[in-house]
Amino acid sequence: MSTAYKIVIGLEVHVQLLTKTKLFCGCLNQFGLPPNTATCPVCLGMPGSLPVMNRKAFDLSMRAAVALNCEIARFTKWDRKNYYYPDLPKNYQISQYDLPFSHDGWLEINIAKEPKKEFLGKKIRIIRAHLEEDAGKSVHDESGRGGDSRVDLNRTGTPLLEIVSHPDMNSPEEATAYVEEIRLMLREIGVSDCEMQEGSLRCDANVNLHVPEASEPKGYAATPLVEIKNLNSIRSIGRAITYEADRHYQEYRKNPEGFRIDKLLKTTAGWDDDRGRTEVQRHKEEAADYRYLPDPDLVPVVVSQEKIEAVRAEMGELPAAQRTRLVSQYGLSAYDSQVLTAKGRPMVAYFEVVAAALGDGKKAANRISDLIFPALTERKTEIDDFPIAAPRFGEFLRKTESIGADPRRKTFSHMLEHEVDAAAAMEALGIKDASAFDEATLRAAVVVAIAGNPRAVADVKSGKSAAANAIVGAVMKANKGAPNDLVRKLLAEELAKT
C-alpha cells in the first residue's frame, strides 16, 4: 500500500443475535435448515400478517450496546426502510432510522506495530447500534454457464444488530482488529456466535482516501466513498480494503481533477475473494431513496435506567477489562493477556486456577501456551472439554517444575493419553520427582558424565558454553526427573576443579 495517501475506513458490522426465534415471528432462527422451511406469513410479508417484537432480541441488543459504551435511548421506535430485492418479500425492511435504541459509543483496539510485544490503544467511535430484521439469501449459480439464481428465505426476519462506526480507522490492520474485538466481546457476553462462515457476522467497509494536495483548503483531496458489501471473513476484510485503497489511488493519479468526492457518486461494490478484486454493483443510495416511515404495526419501546443497570450487571468482565487485570494482577505481558482472553472466559478461568496453584502467573501462561494450546488444536476441542482439569494441570506443573522440558512433555503426554495424574504418569515413565534426588547422588552422576564426554569438556573449556548441554543431557538421561538447574550448578563446580 502506498504511503502517498491516508486511507479512511468506516465499518458497518452486522451481527445475527442468539435467539431461538426470529425478530417479529415465531419461526426458528437456526442455520442450516432446508431452504425456505423456516418461514411464515409474517416473515414472508403476507397481507394481513402482523409482527410481534421478540423481547430476547431487544435484551441481547441492549447488552451489546452497553458493552460498546453506547448511550441507550429511553424511547425508540421502528421504521420501514423501503427497497426491492428478490430476498426481501415485503419490499421493506423493519429497521430504525432517526431514533435508534443506542448511539455514541466506542471500542478500544490495539494498533501497535508489534501487538505481540505491546499494547497501543485507539478508541474507535461508534455512531449507532440499532436493531433490524435480516433479509433472505440469494444463491447464485457460479458455474459460469448462466444458470439460475435461487432465493432462500429462511434468514428473512432474523434479528440483526447493525453496529456503525465513525471513519476512525486508517489501515486494514485497524479494521480487522476492530472486527476481531467485536467478535470476541459479543461471543463472551452471549449476544451472538459470530460465525462468519455461517453469515452470523458480516461486514460492510466504507473506504475512501485523503490524498495530500496543497491546492485544497483542507490540505488534501478526498476520493469518493466506496462501500464494499458483505465481507464474511477477517481475511477478506483486510484484502478488500487494501485492494480498494490501491485502486482508488491509481484512479486518482490518472485523473486528479475528475476523481474527486464532489465529481463522482458514492458506489456500492462486491468483493470477489477468488479473484482478489472488487466489482461495482450500483451507485449508493441515500436515506431519501429508502423513503423511511414509522412502522404502524409496532409500538415504541421505553427503556428505564434500572433496566440498563441490570443489563450492565449481568454482562460480567469484558475482554478489555480482563486484559488489563491479567497484566496488573499476574504480571503478564500485553501479548500473553491478549492470547488468553482471545480464547474466551473459560480459558482465563483455567489460567487463573493454574496461576494460583503455581504461584507464578507468567510461568503458568508459558506452560499453557507450550502444552495446552497445541493439545487443544490437535484434539480440535475447547478447554471446557479438555481431560486435564486446571487443578490437575497446576499439580503437574508443581511436580515437574525443576525437571527438563523433555521429561515434562512426556509426562504431560502420558497424562493426556491415559487420563491419570502427574504422579501416576511419572511412575509409569520412570521419571522421579525432583525432591527424590539428593545433591551427592547427582554430583556423582555429573562426575561420571564428565568422564564419559571428554570432547564436550574440552569444548566448554575452550569457550563453547553450549557444549555443556551434552553433559547435562547425559546426566538427565540417567536420572529422569532430576532438577535441571541443580545439575548445571554441580557441573559448573566440577568443571572448575578439572
User: In the residues, how many domains can be counted?
Assistant: 3
Helix content percent band: 25-40%
User: Over the alpha carbons, how many angstroms does the gyration radius reach?
Assistant: 30 Å
Please state the overall shape, judged from the principal axes of the Cα atoms.
elongated
Structural class: alpha+beta
| Major sheet details | 10 strands, mixed
Compute the average pLDDT.
Answer: 89
Distance between the termini: 61 Å
Unreliably modeled segments: none
User: How many distinct helices?
Assistant: 16
Which range does the strand content fall in? Answer: 15-25%
Count of DSSP E strands? Answer: 17
Structural account:
There is one protein chain. With 498 residues, this protein is of the alpha+beta class. The protein has three domains: 240 residues, no CATH class; 119 residues, no CATH class; 61 residues, Arc Repressor Mutant, subunit A, CATH 1.10.10. Helix content is 40%, strand content 20%. Strands 1, 2, 6, 7, 10, 11, 12, 13, 14 and 15 form a ten-stranded mixed sheet that branches. It is elongated, with a radius of gyration of 30 Å. The termini are far apart. The mean pLDDT is 89.
Keywords:
16 helices; three-stranded antiparallel β-sheet; 498 residues; Arc Repressor Mutant, subunit A; ten-stranded mixed β-sheet; 3 domains; alpha+beta
Question: How is this fold's topology laid out?
Answer:
Layout: E1 6-16, H1 55-67, E2 71-72, E3 75-76, E4 79-82, E5 92-95, E6 102-110, E7 121-133, E8 137-140, E9 149-152, E10 159-165, H2 172-188, E11 201-212, E12 220-222, E13 226-231, H3 234-254, E14 267-272, E15 277-283, H4 287-290, E16 293-294, E17 301-302, H5 305-314, H6 319-330, H7 334-342, H8 345-358, H9 361-379, H10 390-399, H11 405-418, H12 422-429, H13 439-452, H14 454-461, H15 468-478, H16 484-497
Parallel strand pairs: 13-14
Antiparallel strand pairs: 1-10, 1-11, 2-6, 3-17, 4-5, 4-16, 6-7, 7-10, 8-9, 11-12, 11-13, 14-15
Helix pairs in contact: 2-3, 6-7, 8-9, 8-10, 11-12, 13-15, 13-16, 15-16
